[in-house]
Amino acid sequence: MSKILVLGAGGKTGRRVTARLRELGVPHRAASRTGAAPFDWNDPRTWDATLDGVRGVYLVRPELQPNDVLRAFTARAVARGAERLVLLSARAGGPELDRPRERIVQHSGAVWTILRPTWYFQNFSEGMFARAVRSGELRLPAGTGHEAFVDAEDVAQAAVAALTEDGHHERVYELSGPQPLSFAEAAAVISEVSGRVVLYRPITADAYVSELIATGESVPFARLQARLLTWVSQDEGAHISDGVERALGRPPRTFTAYAKQATAEGAWR
Questions:
Q1: Most buried residue among 17, 19, 134, 261 by CB atoms closer than 10 A?
Q2: Which PANTHER family match (predicted)?
Q3: Which of 57-71, 151-165, 194-208, 233-247 has the lowest mean pLDDT?
Q4: 17 is in which domain, residue-wise?
Q5: Which of 26, 32, 58 is nearest to 168 (CA)?
Q6: Is residue 203, in this structure, part of any structural domain at all?
Q7: What torsion, rounded to 10 degrees, do the Cα atoms 227, 134, 157, 247 define?
Q8: What CA–CA distance (Å, rounded) separates 39 from 30?
């Protein structure tokens, strides 16, 4: 069986993709900047070693990187024998944010699948909102907007299906959870399930940017996150998509089920 390269193997979906491939006995290479297979988008000298013997690639889009970097890497991957590319894109943020990158993959000459997930459940337990949840207060510029949050495990399983099965070629899967939630509603679910009080407090985008910068985040990153959360405030991500069911043949996982598991695993201790 041909080897699959997993980029961003230390990330929310990447490590879940790697774990699933391991469970299935699929040969794979887990690549990241600090992993056993070093990979750096900014250092093309790391590319060839990670691509050796690879026929499928899970592409975690390089945030805040020029599109030329992705174009150069996909060209190198196809030239080295990669036949199947699965791109982790995004549903949120507006059509101009990720669609140019999607077109790069679609025009690469390889068989492709595009995954467009919403915001992950796991942002509350192992991502950008985790510290705030543990502190008991979510301060975000999301207003009263709703988002159809999705489980990163569902996204990873869709990626593995696209990498290992037929029937997913030239498909765009918009991946969402089964219901839209506001941040206040998400905080209420976490509070009920975990037994700890978590409150949501809407703030301005400028205040959020300042708070992120104060924690050490870069200005471009802080502004990008504020922009995406502003989209949430406008209910841009509130609609439900059928991508999980199309890709996996089952309904997406619920936020309550996720919160119960996260609590059992001690995510918010």
A1: 17
A2: PRESTALK A DIFFERENTIATION PROTEIN A (PTHR43162:SF1), PTHR43162
A3: 57-71
A4: 3-117+152-175+239-251
A5: 58
A6: no
A7: -50
A8: 9
| pLDDT reported for residue 1 | 44
Burial of 60 from C-beta contacts in 10 A (0-12 / 13-18 / 19+): buried
Q: What is the pLDDT of residues 38-72, one digit of tens each?
A: 899 999 999 999 999 999 999 997 666 788 999 99
- The per-residue pLDDT for 208 is 97
Residue 17 lies in a domain: yes
pLDDT-derived band of residue 225, with 50, 70 and 90 as boundaries? very high
The region that residue 185 occupies, defined by phi over 0 for left and psi between -120 and 50 for alpha, beta otherwise, is: alpha
Longest CA pairwise span in the chain (Å): 53
| SS percent in the chain: helix, strand, coil, step 5 | 45, 20, 35
Q: 3-class secondary structure for 75-102?
A: HHHHHCCCCEEEEECCCCCCHHHHHHHH
What is the domain-level CATH number for residue 92? 3.40.50.720
Q: Which amino acid is at 99?
A: R
**195 domain residue, yes or no:** no
Secondary structure letter of residue 218 according to DSSP: -
Structural tokens at position 246:
């199309």
Distance (Å, whole) CA 268 – CA 194: 8
Residues 6+ apart with CB under 8 A from 181: 146, 147, 148, 149, 189, 255
- pLDDT, tens only, 105-164: 999 999 999 999 999 999 999 989 999 999 999 999 999 999 999 999 999 999 999 999
Q: How many domains does the chain have?
A: 1
